[in-house]
Amino acid sequence: MRSTRKFAFTGIGLALGLVALAGCSSDSTSSDTATETAAETAAETAAEAAAETAAEAAGDRSDWPTTIVVAAVPSEESSSLQQSYEPLLETLREQLGVDVEFFQATDYAGIIEAQNSGKVDLAQYGPFSYVLAKTRGADIDVAGVMTDAPDAEPGYQSYGIALGTNDAVNSIEDFKGKTVCFVDPASTSGYLYPSEGLLSAGIDLEADITPVFAGGHDASVLAVKNGDCEVGFAFDAMVDSNLIESGDIQPGEIKTVWKSEVIAGSPMAIRNGLPASLDAEIRRIVLEEVNVDKLIAAGKCTSTEDCGLTDENVWGWVSKPDSFFDGVRKVCEVTGSENCQ
After folding, report:
1. Do residues 29 and 63 touch, judged by C-beta distance below 8 A?
2. Sign of CA dihedral 149, 75, 308, 68
3. CA distances (Å), origin 118, targets 42, 267, 270
């Protein structure tokens, strides 16, 4: 009722006016109620449509497994590898509504075998171990590639190293005749690219060096520091920052005498054969939900340092095709390494 207006009527006119006014009020109330009902119905319809869209996007979950398994290999000696993957594991649990287990392998061969047999659904590889897994028949695809920033091209380098005080070693050519620490036969920056570097320098991998597999990038660097190996290889951040920040080496204690070309970043690989809707959701979560920016926005951490993902402390994962790793395949061809088989 329009209560702010005043009407002056007399006699019959007043009565007619009151009847008219009552009719007007009834029409207004009916109209308002109808409008509200229509709005509520529209809102409910929109909500139902949104729910249906979400359900369609997620697909039918009746064929989803009750548990998925995520696996990784530590880049260094670590008792907290699972903790560094917890933001990923937690987000997968929350958004998929299934149990998510973590498998810490001792080497890439363990992950390749586990994913090949269908026991691991999502695995963090190095570039070479991913290529090797596919060569050995693993039915997998790239779900995302590690990166330090959303707009940074995923990649890193292998370093050839020696003690800072070792004046006899100043280039990779000086590795000839030395005890050389590698990381793992399936390590990209800890074996494959170093092998190519040594071969290009005219050094025979069997006749001209004494190889040692240290088992981890940190172990390779520390073996050089402790004199167990005269020279060695490791990925760039392990030498430039990781071990310095942990206090295991001092600035300048280890020198870099060789650097590889830029290596494609490390991929997270998903096992093919999962239900299509689950596969799509896992890829979406890896690429869109698990990164430093999203974690800070969700209040799960407060800074880049606090949010760093995996034991390599990365920003997150970005989309790349399988062809992104063709450079690794080319190095395999150049080296002819039996480890590429």
Report:
1. no
2. positive
3. 46, 18, 11
Classified as helix, coil or strand, 218 is: helix
Tell me which long-range contacts 283-290 makes (C-beta under 8 A, separation of at least 24).
283/143, 283/144, 285/91, 285/92, 285/95, 285/96, 286/88, 286/122, 286/143, 286/144, 286/317, 287/143, 287/144, 287/317, 287/318, 287/319, 289/91, 289/95, 290/87, 290/88, 290/91, 290/316, 290/317
CATH architecture of the domain 158-261 equals 3-Layer(aba) Sandwich (3.40)
Domain boundaries in the chain? 67-152+265-340, 158-261
Start-end of H helices in the chain: 11-58, 81-96, 108-116, 127-135, 193-200, 217-226, 236-237, 243-245, 276-284, 292-297, 304-307, 326-335
Three-state DSSP class for residue 42 = helix
Say if 67-152+265-340 and 158-261 have the same CATH topology. Answer: yes
Tokens of 238: 């392990």
Angle, alpha carbons 123-143-262 (nearest 5°): 85
Nearest to 150 by CA among 337, 318, 320: 318
With beta carbons less than 8 A apart as the criterion, state whether 190 and 130 touch. no
- Structural contact between residues 337 and 194, judged by C-beta atoms closer than 8 angstroms: no
Q: Which helix (H) or strand (E) holds 212?
A: strand 210-213
pLDDT means per 10 residues, the chain with 341 residues, are 33 36 42 48 48 49 95 75 93 97 90 91 94 92 95 94 97 98 92 94 96 95 98 96 94 98 95 96 98 93 84 93 94 84 80
| H or E element in which residue 144 lies | strand 140-147
Query: Using CA atoms, how far apart are residues 225 and 208, in angstroms rounded to an integer?
Result: 22
Q: Which CATH superfamily is domain 67-152+265-340 in?
A: Periplasmic binding protein-like II (3.40.190.10)
Cα angle 90, 92, 93; round to 5: 65
